[in-house]
Amino acid sequence: MAYKVPRPADGTFLPCVIADYMTSEGHPPQHRKTGAIPWLAGKLYFLGDIMAARIIRKEVLIPGQTTKLVLDAPHVAAKAKPGNFVILRVHGKGERVPLTIADADPQQGTITLVYLVLGKSTWLLNQLEEGQELNDLCGPLGRPTHIEPGPEPVVCVGGGTGIAAMHHIAKGFARAGHEVVSVIGARAKDLLLFENELRAFSHEILVATNDGSHGIKGFVTDALRDYLDAHKNVAEVVAVGPVPMMEAVANLTRPYGVKTTVSLNSIMIDGIGMCGACRVNVGGKIQFACVDGPEFDGHQVDFVELRERLSAYKPHELKSYQECGCSHG
Amino acid sequence: MAEKKTKPTPKPRVAMREQPAIERVGNFSEVALGYTREQAMAEAARCLQCRKPACVKGCPVEINIPGFITRLAEGDVRGAYGILRETNSLPAVCGRVCPQEVQCEGACILGQMTDKASGEKLEPVAIGRLERFAADTFAAESACDELTGKPVCAMPRDGLKVACIGSGPSSLTVAGYLSALGVQVTIFEALHEPGGVLVYGIPEFRLPKATVGREIDALRAQGVEIRCNWVGGKTVAVRDLLNDGYQAVFIGVGAGLPKFLGVPGESLVGVYSANEYLTRVNLGRAYDYPAYDTPVTRGKHVAVIGGGNVAMDAARTALRLGAERVSIVYRRTREEMPARREEIHHALEEGVHLEMLCNPTAYVGDGKHRLAALRLQRMCLGAPDASGRCRPEAIPGDVFELPCDQAILAVGTGSNRVLLQDTPEVTLNKWGYIVVDEETGETSLPGVYAGGDIVTGAATVILAMGAGRRAAKAIARKLGLQ
Hints:
The complex is a heterodimer. Chain A has 11 helices and 17 strands.
């Protein structure tokens, strides 16, 4: 078996001998795609993405709910910037699912994804173990976060699974010299993510839980309001999380006049600007979240419309989830 | 009595079997069933074997049409297929989706003759159906084994590498042409399945995905490498490829940006671009939901806006997904519709309504952000405009509402900028399409070629293939292969 292809750290490809995989049984998905090329057997050949999207590490962050995957995907890792996302398909009959890149390591050739088990596709994704491969991984997609170098404080707000997505953006601001204040929230203490990862570069971490089990009792907006009242020099607020949370953050910052960026999670199919399923209304204009975003000016976004469009397939989603032998928690 | 020697009057064209309309609206299987061997041989015998065949000039990839038809008339399918593949990488596709009436068949001399006995016009030779027959029959007899043993698979030459971005008809043509000359061709495709519009756009009932897959497998067997999930301009940049030693890069990314009307209510749930609707159903196989995971809403009353082939595809798809009423909304009349006559005929046969001389002015919601109706302005035809078509003009005050729970927009596509924004060195025209040298397809960036819809704007499969063929020839000359 010649599956384990050595790979240089910079994400480029090593030529390797094709003979073995041609004769091996049970080709993993990527091999099938390349197909059998008899006269190339034994010759030097560029295998490209043949080993892409294998799960190197799987870590359950919240049992039954939230999982972190580290994937071997050097061609994605080499180009991934804060704010980018990927589209994946778990299996051959699967749907295309967008997930934000929570971290990328071009040296190791890996990307990190964090997901909440919400329906059939994320449930199936959660069934995969270390060493197994995704059927398809496509990216990095979307415009990267607009980051100007500078020292002014940037407040990064994350809610639920959005904390992981926010983490990559916050890291980008920290690397550009900004003082990063992370505001994270969840229902309870054991549902909080990435607090340690954020500590590595955050100037300050403000925590809010609904039940008061960690940090202040209340919502991320309560912590954010206190911070904005005490600090006048905030350059930008970035919010990633559930739609009501992003909407609440945008409404809160509006009277303060602080630039507010939100990362929208509309329904996507191709993720490359071909269909407009992900269209959102920003300042009265149609924008495609997959290529014009996913980040937009929170003060311009029509959140009501976004919420309605996100609910378009609720009956299908519920049906699919129930039929795959699981139930909504 | 001495018999006067006259040429026998050609027989009428051999009809092709079709699924009856009443049956086919209940499934996604192919509508046209193809010729049998006897039918194909009989139709092939109609060809007059012109000394200067006009049909070849009508074909954008210059297939040796009399050549392959002679073989078919003799029953030599392999020989016929070999001739087709000399110039066409996708004969099973072209035989199905080309508008032959304006190309090869439109030029066929038979079509310009009248039957002396009845005085009726004759029909041209069914070149498309014969091409399809040859490709399907050859494939059924295991094309790949045959192909790999043939000289058409030249041994790879060292160090000749060409990259194609996009895997639609133009790139597949470039790949087929160059790999037959021994060039290592790598195709970078953004979606998870190769074929471009052949897999996400044209529905199964017109072009089965298995047929497309077979022709792509034949290219793979010829040594073409296809990397799916690689987005040009995101995962891989044109400059990366030039730096990596590719001697030429062909850009064939199509015109995939859907156009919207920009009228109120366009974001209501139930309003789709045809691209989204067809991608869900074709690429995502949503017609087989829940066996496949991609869902699509099955509309009860569906309005399809537009009059081209994409509108016909969307309307016929909606019927097959169980819609009770499907209306095509078009601002001119049936005569001006850009769709192929055959497609309009099939759609009408299946029960699609035509709502002609209507222009949408708003989408009306039900108060819960769901589509409830389309507000339409009645039009009449005015004086011909610059394009020669009559300009539709609004009839003041004549506005009505067409109730519908789904609206599918098929009003054209534009240039998708994902790759182009990453490649500013490539010059674009004012519509955002790539400017190329007409003879060679070369862009303003040396070594980088382009063809298909990203150059011309939305056109046909065969025109994209013709552009691919021109670019491939130019690349081959540049590499010193011809």
